[in-house]
Amino acid sequence: MYHTWMRYFTPGPAHHRLGLVCLGVGLQHGALPTVGPRTLDHHVAVVVGSGSGWYRGPDGRRTPVTAPALIWLTPGVPHHYSADPGTGWDESFVDFTGPATATYTELGYIEPERPVVPLADAAPARAVVGRIARAARPGNPLLEVETAAAVHELLVALRRARADTNADGAPVLAALARDAFTRLSVAEHAARHGMTPAELRAAVRRAAGCSPKDYLLTVRLGRAKELLAATDLPVAAVARRVGYDDPAYFSRLFTRRVGTAPVRFREQQGRTVPGGWSHTVPDPEHPPIILTGSG
Questions:
Q1: Consecutive sets of 10 residues in the chain, 295 residues long: mean pLDDT of each?
Q2: Which residue, 116, 97, 79, is CA-closest to 41?
Q3: In a 3-state reduction of DSSP, which class is residue 64?
Q4: Torsions phi, psi of 292, nearest 5?
Q5: What are the φ and ψ backbone dihedral angles of 139, each rounded to 5 degrees?
Q6: Which of 46, 85, 107, 294 has fewest C-beta within 10 Å?
Q7: CA 93 to mean position of chain CA atoms
Q8: How many Å is the maximal CA-CA distance in the chain?
Q9: DSSP string covering 2-24, please?
Q10: Phi, psi dihedrals of residue 92, rounded to the nearest 5°
Q11: Bridge partners (DSSP) listed for residue 83
């Protein structure tokens, strides 16, 4: 026995310009029928919350699937998969497409070369699928935009839930961020972690979808923006704080990457905070109470 619920959508051309659109959603459990062999023209994320089964790709090899796990179905790739007929499994799926799939693949969020991905926890991804299912209620005027936004959220949830990812993110990224403002070469960063430069490049590419140099630059420029917006430090001092001895080089780099010069960025922000910003992240659901004096 099995239970199947699914809905399919047809977003218009304007919605496709959002980058990602949801084409369908399904919630199933039990000894489900075998899927395929078939080939699709869009992506599907199949989240297996409990149970086990198998997946077979174009090479003909059968890969075991044990929950919690993710099965990636990618366009143009023949596939064939099934829950164990004796025990079945609990499955959620989301069909999606759009030009942003190429970028998510480049960044490593979608992995065509790894169709079966073990997950540490399927619950966050299943919660997003549940929101898509609730958005599918009849007459919802926000259906296409609401589900498109949820697909972006689903890809992030699945990336975070991988069994090979620390709950707080990849340790190598945390270490690079900590040392980002020191004047170290990529080779020196690698040596600090007992890695070769090639191993560091592979680890950062896998975790962040970019090179170590680009990741370090992102961290440095993020901090530079905070200093420009929250303090009145001269640009040269900001440059030194984030690891650049040459303020002219820093200004050129900032302008090229951000699209505006450091001085202009500061003028646009216009929110210098005496003493700097707080490092404590407020709880948006429980904002602090602002006390006002009485006359």
A1: 92 95 96 94 97 95 96 97 94 97 92 94 96 94 96 95 66 87 88 88 82 91 92 93 94 94 89 61 68 57
A2: 97
A3: strand
A4: -115, 145
A5: 80, 5
A6: 294
A7: 18
A8: 80
A9: EEEEEEE----HHHHTTS-EEEE
A10: -125, 140
A11: 53
